[in-house]
Amino acid sequence: MVPAWPSAARQNWIDMTMTYVRTNIQAMEGYTPGEQPQGGKFIKLNTNENPYPCSPKVKAAIGRVCQSGLQRYPDPTATAFRMQLSEMLSDELPVITPDWILCGNGSDDILTIITRVFVDAGDLIRYPNPSYVLYKSLAEIQGARVDVVNFQPDWSLPNEFSTPQDRLKLAFLANPNSPSGTIVPSAAVAEIAAALPCPLVVDEAYVDFSETNCLSLVAENEKILVTRTLSKSYALAGLRFGYVVAQPLVIRELAKVKDSYNCDALSIAGATAAIEDQTWRTENCATILATRKRLVNELRGMGFECVDSQANFVWCKHPRHESAELYRDLKSVGVLVRYMNYPNWGDGIRVTVGTDDQIEAFLTILNPMLQ
């Protein structure tokens, strides 16, 4: 048994250790993921996961890799996936080849790579508010400053978002946006990118639940990068696989920064099998969209103000009930939703679209709380 340190010695060690840590790291709070309970029974509607199991083809592909062995390093560039994806996306982006694609350990890994490539300490990163809170953490890790531009009441972006500014090196746009589920039309995105003096990352994590996307813009402007993930519409959040589509010159620079083997053999095989099964994806998305429509109608019937969503979640607020209180009350009876409070904007509740049974149970539990 290791004896406990005297409190004074422990504090001295902590004080000394902290002198080694970069000042900006000490100052930051760090990104806080949504709750992932490891025990107990919950209706989990808080982290925008797909509520259904992935395509059976994914499990079969992973099984084949396990059977053949994991003793060798994986393909460092996920060639099989990039080849399959470029073929799949060729109708939307005819010029695409595997050289237009870089893969990562989820799209968060891709966002980290992009930030490291384009942004120096002291540079400026721009993103809208409210939006994906990871963007702030990426800036803080890099020692960069942030320029946060509020959405307008109709969830469009003001001209300020595309205005050049000294040392502005990168702009993020979640599209569809989280937490609102709203989308900026591709024509508006093209105008923003043309006006910006820096690359624009269009974060399309939820795009398969949307009516439109910005993929075609990548061929029109070398400053546009489109990132996507397999966590949502392919139900592979536990596998961690994402990618970016950009012009080959950009991809070559990003590849210099990625970890040597940032995607393992299981995730490459599973992701490749997933995008091969477009029948599964199409049917799954249709199911989620139907449930989303019902969820919005029911919430509005209960008096909630709901934003029209093009994602697999709904952002809502009740005019007579505090969002934080509803979140706590729901959690106390085993229902997890995401409470979010954004500076200079306000708070609300984000509800992931679950299965029909999960949504039915959620609504049944919620209704008496509003009486």
From TrEMBL:
Its cofactor is pyridoxal 5'-phosphate. Its EC number is 2.6.1.9. Pathway: Amino-acid biosynthesis; L-histidine biosynthesis; L-histidine from 5-phospho-alpha-D-ribose 1-diphosphate: step 7/9. Transmembrane segments: none annotated. Residues 41-364 form the Aminotransferase class I/classII large domain. The modification N6-(pyridoxal phosphate)lysine is found at residue 232. GO terms for molecular function: histidinol-phosphate transaminase activity; pyridoxal phosphate binding. Belongs to the class-II pyridoxal-phosphate-dependent aminotransferase family. Histidinol-phosphate aminotransferase subfamily. This is Histidinol-phosphate aminotransferase. It comes from Bythopirellula polymerisocia.
